[in-house]
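INTERNAL AUDIT FORM
Audit reference: QA-55
Scope: verify that the stored structure record matches its stored sequence.
Auditor: D.O.
Record contents follow.
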Amino acid sequence: MDAFLADVDSLRSMFGGMADGRRPQICDGGGARAMGRGSELGWIVSQQQRVRDRIERLCQPFENLENTPTRVRSDLDRLASTIDRAEEMASNRSIGSNTPTDIADQIVAALQVARREVQGVAEGRRPFPCNAAVFRRLRQLENEGNSYAGSGAHRVVALRDRICRQLGTDVSSLRTSEQRFRRGLDDLEGTVRQNRRNMRDLRDRIRSLIQ
């Protein structure tokens, strides 16, 4: 049990970067290796498998980035045209409601950055950049007083949110998953320690009976 507890504790140091949207060590083989040690106790073997299953679920979003699920592909295919349409709206100076124009110009600039960020994503050449700063910038600009250009920016941000929600790779989802996993480790450690105490108490009682 001591070895298993040490392995569980080692997992706590393998989350580096996950809260920022980067693939952590626990999802890069480290978690599986930590839970790969055998045990003579069937209960421990069962718990090791449970942790491996949890690691697999925890890391699924990063697998989604590398192998985009079919349900997300249609949204990715719409992404380029949504950005194009939003830029067309923000660039159209014949629309009286497209003011203030400086906000429209900033939206155009941000959309051009977004286009570069997602280039090659729909073709599978790179993962979708859920946590790119440009999407936070567009979210800010859509509420800066230009309702016409802002509506185009909103469509891009809404599509980004939909894609990232399905992938599970937006920062808030990853942080929630990490926190849930850590709580699960704490609960498991508490259970193992209690079982160890119970076994020691039982051993001591048996010894006292046979002495």
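Auditor finding: record pair retrieved intact. The mean pLDDT is 91.
Action required: none
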